[in-house]
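Hi R.,

As promised, here are both runs. First protein below:
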Amino acid sequence: MVFAIEEINNNTELLPGIRLGYQIYDSCASVSMTVHLAFQFLNSLDLVFHTGKNCSQSGMVMAVVGESGSTPSISMSRIISPFNIPQVSPSATCTCLSNKQQYPSFFRTIPSDQFQAAALAKLIKHFDWTWIGAVRSDSDYGNNGIASFLEAFHLFNVIFHDVMRQSKKLFYMKILFEELSREPFPPRQWIGSESWVTNPGLRKYSFLAGTIGFGIQKSVIPGFRNFLLNLSFAQVAVSPLLTEFWEDSFNCTIKESNSAGKKVCNGTEDIKTLQTPYTDTSQLRISNMVYKAVYAIAHAIHNALFVQILFCFFFPLPLCLNSSLQILTELKKVNFSRNGYDVSFDTNGDPVAIYELVNWQKTMAGITDIVTVGLYDASLPEGQEFQINKNIIWMEGSTKVPVSVCSGSCPPGTRKVLQKGKPICCYDCTACPEGEISNTTGKVKCLSVHVKCFYDANLDTCIPKPIEFLSFQDILGIILATFSVLGACLTIITTAIFLRHRTSPIVRANNSELSFLLLISLTLCFLCSITFIGAPSEWSCMLRHTAFGITFVLCISCVLGKTIVVLMAFKARLPGSNVMKWFGPPQQRMTVMSFTFIQVLICTIWLVLSPPFPIKNLTAYKEKIILECALGSAVGFWAVLGYIGLLAAFCFVLAVLARKLPDNFNEAKLITFSMLIFCAVWITFIPAYVSSPGKFTVVVEIFAILASSFGLIMCIFAPKCFIILFKPEKNTKKHVLSKN
């Protein structure tokens, strides 16, 4: 601190022309002494401050560097905060001090325990340790530190076995290690907090070799070693603190009255010959925190003076006098770099948290060295804060990471089941139940298998289910599509034959207009079956069912019309009958259109209210997903089929009644056979459709369409084509009208 202040006083850029004074108090690590000193400089308007070169001057306290411990810092902050006196601590790490409502004027250059706890939790999780014991002191530092530690463990999903004992501070750790060194005990892997893990005084305990932990970043302060070694005897004599240090280091006394058998210090003692932590500047950690604290206050004063100059230019002198409040305000905004180290504070008064991961490694000579093996930088993005860049030597000189678990990790396919009456890191591994998996080790609970995938035999992998539908690449799809095209081609060829011979008696005798309309509807029936093949989509689902329903009704309506024509024709032969006048071509067309319009109306209502839509059937098979069309409204679907069945049954009854009429070529017989096939196909279709799984439901539907369509064209038109093409002698009016 003295070095930093003298460096600032000799700086021509920072606070030029202004000298900082200081007064150093020894609180003796006592809270009561800290409180006493805080009240002392609050109640004294004019304190005497050292300004260097054995000079002193009176003034008011503008800022405080300290305290070292968390508990004294808490007490001091509560006293001086109401007076807006900024307090910058170089080593108080309690997370509680980040609370600006309770400690509004507190700042620190050392990271909060919250960051250290997060770093330790990530370190422990990195090495998969779950059986951990924690040692703490019964103080604000210890209690808040362990609370932050446990909170970080829960945040990073690390299981913590809570074994607490009294100690964490350096003072208590020395006592603990001293006791442990007296009697042999099983090897333990120690994880140190920053409060003791970089303390060279503890390296004498051999059982601590292999210790790892996070310490304050090691630093270099140019000129500091020379400043320490240039300490003169005259400087020592006027400073109680330096007097105590000098007497202890050289085992002498400066004042002859206090000699008590000791030799008197005469000034010839050479500080450069000392081999103590005082002269060792290779491990400057907390010293750099003090250095940064002093510079932070200096920068705040510098900025406050600049604001004061501007303010006093406009306002009277009493209103612009500098105060600790101005320094407190500017301290929140400081942001500078010194010797390569950045200094700034967040809204909680905390600096950016940077720790070194240190490892206590034994050399060949048996000396324990504190070696930096990694870094933790809380300012880096999530997942990149923690780095290990050197090999770690563990307890007993091992290079293998120690295992610290109550129970081993449960393998994939199993989950943890806690052992009754034991800590939460003690468990058994149980296989996942059916329908659940665990794809990583150490799972607390198994995951339900997604409906779109199934698990393998090891219960550790969710395998995506293949999607199945009747495609044009399937053998069944190719066969059915081929028959659909063949049927359509056959119908077109039949139409061409009928057109070519449209004036022949056999074509004219069977109502050529209805015959051509029937052939067109049959072509559409064959082609509509193709819409059932391929991946279902919203349009294909709606098209396939409605097109099928309308074209089939059109087809059956034509057959029904032809059947009625046959009956009416024979009724017209009776003497005095004029029945054909009431069922001529216009009435026939109206009949077909009326029957078809009813089906169009049914389909329209179905599409408007609840149309078919594509779905992924996840329940039909465990190992695959069926892509199919949902009916939307089952009532609509069965209404369409029911209407087709009703017309077919009516047509079948009329055809049966007309089958024995005495023409040589009675079309009613052909219609009877076609309707018999049609009804047989669709009666067997219903149970087959309901019971067929997956894509075979579509196969059954296409098969029924094709079978009934082929039945109609083969029964009604094949005999006529045979006569037209191969028996032209029978294609005469005389033969057609003659009786059997």
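And here is the second one, sequence first, then its structure tokens:
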Amino acid sequence: MHRHTHCNDCLLRTVPSREPCLTADIIEHYSFVSKHCLFVDDKAPVTDTNIPSHLEQMLDILTQEEGERESGETGPCMEYLLHHKILETLYTLGKADCPPGMRQQVLTFYTKLLAHIRQPLLPHINVHRPVQKLIRLCGEVLAAPTENEEIQFLCIVCAKLKQDPYLVNFFLENKSKRAEIRSPVVTAGAKESVVAPDTGQTPTEQPSAAAASASSPPSNNNNTNNYNLVSSLLNLTKSPDGRIVVKACEGLMLLVSLPEPSAAKCLTENTELCQLLTDRLVSFYQALPQSMDPLDIETVESVNWGLDVYNLKEDAAVFTGKRALISFLSWLDYCDQLIKEAHKSAAVVMAKAVRERFFVAVMEPQLMQTSEVGILTSTALLNRIIRQVTSEALLLQMVYFLLGEERDAETAATITNDPLRHRLIEHCDHLSDEISIMTLRLFEQLIQKPEQHILHSLVLRSLEERNYQENKPQEEREPLENDLEEDPMFGDDLSPDSRLSGSDWLSSSPPQSPDHMRPDGKTEVHKIVNSFLCLVPDEAKSSYHVEGTGYDTYLRDAHRQVRTRWDWRGHPKPLEKCDLELPFYEGHFLKVLFDRMGRILDQPYDVNLQVTAVLSKLSLLPHPHLNEYLLDPYINLAPGCRSLFSVIVRVVGDLMLRIHRIPDFTPKLLLVRKRLLGLEPEGITIDHMTLLEGVIVLEEFCKELAAIAFVKYHAAASSSP
């Protein structure tokens, strides 16, 4: 390479005196690039010239200069690049793509410059302005030959903004003030335009040297800003090249997480991000088969966006629609992660867009249809969606979609106010067992999500006033139909003197020690445990004949599952502050569950398993009113009210009448249990199979409730001061 003659002397100088040499070199390389573009053959590709080599050496010089100087200090070569608006000139050449392929070279130069130079460049007006203009060129043409360079450039800009988020204000371009002077295409007759670069300013607006060094980000408090960085990335998400799409999605993920409120507002108000998210979600959902096996939907492998590697032939061999399902779940995962990472205000807007444009517009009609096949498929898909969503904002909007936003107590007259909520709860008691089971699974999944509105809407708002309790002094109370005192099965253990006040064991600390209780409080919880364990009569028990089915198994499970996610431990609302005169309505959800629980001896085994699964999940949740209503056998129920315990008592009463009508009841019960456990082969048909299976589920459920009550009591006691 030819060098200026004075540069030979530079080799003999000390290190500090190398600066004039480096400056001269960068001037020489830049001069070659700019002059070559004036006189080069328009049709000759840039790769046939030395332009790529000169641009690469310019980068090497700038990197070397920075490495030889103290951190943050700008050297003369960088000063030259900034002061002489080299990036503006390169942008003009790249925009014109003259010579052919020049845009690719310019994009690469910008990308490497921003990636390799450690000092902050974007605050400089002669950097962020041409960067902004180059951003606008990206994504203009789908499947362009420069797509790879475009996405690399956009992603490095995103990474730089992530490092210094306030700089994003440079990239929120005011629509009303934009007065771009468009660069003419460089032709043989207009090559002088190269030396008058496109700066977006009139001659009187050219910045001073001081302004060229650095500037402050503008204040963007209005909604008239273009966010071209987002728009270009959105365009590239439509690329046919999957790798480009993933990179563009990664860039968007970085941008939505920036903490600048102005950027968050611009993102949701002035870009098509929400539309892209929802349109693609809708199109992927609508590409799914109308009918799919719920088991396939439930068991398809978990999907992470961006790792969507697949084999079409293998997927089709597993089940029809697997590829479409994975594509849908993958994009759902991206939406969920994007909303989780987003600035809070942007997250809310995006989540609401998903609710309105996808859940309400597309899913609701599917869930409200009358076709059993359609209901089953859409409910299974909804269950999978609930399982997958983790972002707070999207979860809340999904819950509002499913359950509504009402917080006041339900009445029998208001349960139809939210048609979808009403329909879903009714589906828990559908004529089709498959639909009932799938909908119950949906609610089981839902009540385990970390959103308080779920439990409040389904259960707690009905229990808030504790008006399921009798509002009379003990001596005035009428004996209830389901009172256990007269039942010989329970003996004297449930006499009024031994009853435990509902508010005692429910508190977050052990109750004060009345006469009938040991100082550690354990006597009373043992009474509660024994109440559940003694509910099923001995002749209807079969678990003690089979190893591994004892109460201790449920204790271990309860210890693992009892959760204290929400700050709901503590005392129930004091009765004196409750409106006990208010008519009690258990709520639509509990009504359906209790109704199904009441038919446990007459409905299929799989239905029973799912009903009890939902009730046990509710019982595990740490709210004192739930503890009282679902787990306290001793609450004094108001006339006409029922609790979980009272429902089970009625079932046991019915069972006692039916046991004596079935010959060899206990041996048959044991055989059915062993068959269910796989310990006995299927043989001859056993009469009353549904009843026998129901008895087994009932026994196991009572043991599970006893274990939950025990563990919750001690968890509350151990966490108290």
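A quick note on the second one: Residues 1-17, 179-213, 479-523 have pLDDT under 50 and may be disordered. Let me know what you think.

Best,
J.
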